[in-house]
Amino acid sequence: MNGRPVKRSLTLHGHRTSVSLEEAFWRAFREIAEAEGKTLNGLAAEIDEARGVDCGLASAIRVHVLAHYRALHPTQGN
CATH assignment of 5-72? Predict the structure, then answer.
């Protein structure tokens, strides 16, 4: 598995931006968007709107992916 970030372009509110994520996060991000019936750009825009000013978009996407899968598979006793 390659852990190097891959830069891809997204369009948020009509503006292009590039985001670097590891391929595993890109795959999971696409899967979540598809499962929710959203485009990748649409889901990214929602995450962008919800993130704080101290959090970069790539980090916010990673946290969103982690939270999604944790909600699906909560750990026992936590």
Answer: 1.10.3990.20
